[in-house]
Amino acid sequence: MPSGKTHDLLTVLLLPPTFAVGWLVTREPALALLISFFTLFGGFMFGPDLDTHSRQYTRWGFLRFLWFPYKVVFAHRSRWSHGILFGTLIRVLYFAGVSAIFIALGVYLRALLISGGAPTAGEAWQQAEVIYEIIARQTGDGAGIATFAGLWWGAAIHTIADVVWSMLKKGKEIL
Q1: Is the pTM value of this prediction over 0.70?
Q2: How far is residue 59's CA from residue 67's CA, in Å, rounded to a whole number?
Q3: Which of 47-61, 128-142, 160-174 is predicted least confidently?
Q4: Alpha carbon of residue 175 to chain centroid
Q5: How many helices (H) and strands (E) does the chain have?
Q6: N or C: which end of the chain has fewer CB within 10 A?
Q7: pLDDT digits over 23-39, tens only?
Q8: Model confidence at 174: pLDDT above 60
Q9: What domain range includes position 160?
């Protein structure tokens, strides 16, 4: 497989065409920039090698513990971690679930510290809705799709490089 440096280099080299295609498709430079940013993030931090002790995994620093269950559940280079269709979707859903748990814990602890008692389910839901509304107002309609597209493309660059590398290696072995 290509080295971590090679994967990083490919991600960076593909940023200008990614931005150009994003701008062409969306007609909005802000969304093209968002796609490009999340392509970089997807390639550097959110790619398929989070299932091993890789550059992507270690870049999470003290937060890498968030990815430990993912490492345990998914075998390296399985269709669930490296799959071009499902790999990124599974990582996004996994990370959203882990993030939701920590956000809910934060809301709960905040309510305990401020009001001295645990919030009711209705109060917690209202706080979550307020947070969602703030995020939705700041990001606009296409931001979610642009974010996922960038994450997917950043991970796809990695997977495509692995597939091409394997094909070239097998071609050399046949010759």
Answers
A1: yes
A2: 11
A3: 128-142
A4: 39
A5: 9, 0
A6: C
A7: 999 888 888 999 999 99
A8: no
A9: 4-174
Q: Which of 133, 131, 140, 134 is nearest to 33 (CA)?
A: 140
**Share above pLDDT 90 across residues of the chain, in percent, rounded to a whole number:** 21
Q: The tokens of 29 are what?
A: 């430079």
Beta-carbon contacts of 84 under 8 Å, excluding residues fewer than 6 positions away, are: 156, 159, 160
Q: How many domains does the chain have?
A: 1
Burial class (CB in 10 A: 0-12, 13-18, 19+), 175: exposed
Report the pLDDT value the prediction gives residue 139, as an integer from 0 to 100: 62
Read off the tokens for 103.
């956000």
Rounded CA separation 30/19 (Å): 10
- Output phi, psi for 162, to 5 deg: -60, -45
Where b means 16+ CB within 10 Å and e means fewer, 21-49 reads ebbeebeeeebbebbbbbbbbbbbbbbbb
**Can you give the pLDDT at residue 77?**
74
How many C-beta atoms surround the C-beta of residue 149 within 10 A? 22
SS3 category, 140:
coil
Q: Which of 56, 78, 77 is nearest to 67 (CA)?
A: 56
